[in-house]
Amino acid sequence: MKKITSLVIAIFLISSSFITSFADEKLNLIGESAILMDYDTGKILYGKNIHKKMYPASTTKVMTALLTLENCDLDEIVTVDYDLGYIDGSGIYIKQGESFTVETLLRALLIKSANDAAVVLANHISGSTEEFAKLMNKRAKELKTKDTHFNNPNGLPDENHYTSSYDLALIAQEAMKHDKFKEIVKSTYIKMPATDQYPYERVFKSTNKFLWGVGGINTIEYKGAIVNIKYDLIDGIKTGYTDIARKCLISSGQKNGFRLISVVLKSEGDEIYKDSRTLIDYGFDTYSKHNIVNKNAELGRKKILFTKEKSLKYKAEEDFNIVMSKNENIENIKTKTILKEPLEIPIKKGDIVGKIQILKDNKVISAINLVASEDVNSILGNIDINKILRILLFAVKVILSISFIVFSVRYINKRKK
Asked: What percent of the chain has a predicted confidence (pLDDT) above 70?
């Protein structure tokens, strides 16, 4: 019996290992860790070692950019009145005495991947890179990351500076909520005006070849053909590289209003672009996005007595979208509207009046508030209609009860006679 049990366990472990391996290798990614996430819902569409702690390199700067957008005015002037010292890696070569707007530094951070711009922004926001790292970790926890600890604003090598593809997808998802971030990360170059320290314009090209890589050495072998690295479906986000982290890339791809976020960590050379395109194409080929509830559509109306408007119009407080495999049947998604009872009059536009449930295979998977589309007012002014109706209902019940008692007494007396 023990031998049989051991054999069964062994077969199960081998099978589980095969399934996991198959899931990881199905797309033949070079990257050690990768994830594909739907931007709107956060649904994970593909994963490979998504919670493995990895060195993020300059993809760190997405968090630095997010905190900059959340804590600064883009027109603020930042004067570097101190010596930055030597900062390794990519930079815009900031000199003591130079002044920039926050937006210029943000563009340098995301387009040129400037390590010195990251330090200047961190000092501007928190006073030091150490204090800024604390802010980064605090914000990461707020975003419900699981595997992250930041130790600097630019991603330079540090054994205590790590994250995961899953966490970077969450951070990128939050950053992409900012229109300015979306605008910057799809830019192909940055021009910096002359300063007293640099009496000429500085121009830097984006580190992201997805935005401009055409011809010559900027091609990859993809699905049996040689194609440009530039890919029109990709509109940013951020590259990264160090000797230990290897090639890293967070990408955003959009097609017909369906946006995906991919993260690939520790890939090699231009294989990082092949890995990322493979993920994005897999998402668009395999899944589709459906709008189930539209917040701008009137969902219904309910008649309400003694009101000037005579009825309540209501709609959803927010949109509800769902991402499903193209093999799944959208007809399995249903909705159910539930209004509050009783409705308190008056009702103001935007007041919550109920909820709409979204069901998949007859099981509730989400619920959204229903709100009034317009005011509903009593014809009796400030008098509470519901209170009056409750009093009238109570009076009717009393009258019916008395009538029943009288009828019963009469009936009994009649039977006795």
From this structure: 91
Report yes or no: 229 and 209 within 8 Å, Cβ to Cβ.
Answer: yes
CATH annotation of 294-372: 2.60.410.10
Q: Enter the tokens of residue 339.
A: 């209004």
Q: CA dist 298 to 313, 366, 373, Å?
A: 7, 19, 8
Altogether, the residues listed in the chain come to a count of: 417
The phi and psi torsions of 27 (rounded to 5 degrees) equal -95, 0
Q: What is the DSSP string of 9-67?
A: HHHHHHHHHHHHHHHHHTTT--SSEEEEEETTT--EEEEESTTS-B--GGGGHHHHHHH
Q: Who's near 58: CB < 8 A, 6+ residues apart?
A: 89, 90, 113, 115, 154, 155, 207, 238, 239, 240, 241, 248
Listed by start position, the domains of the chain span 30-290, 294-372, 387-417
Can you identify the CATH homologous superfamily of domain 30-290?
DD-peptidase/beta-lactamase superfamily (3.40.710.10)
Q: What is the pLDDT of residues 53-100, one digit of tens each?
A: 999 999 999 999 999 999 999 999 999 999 999 999 999 999 999 999
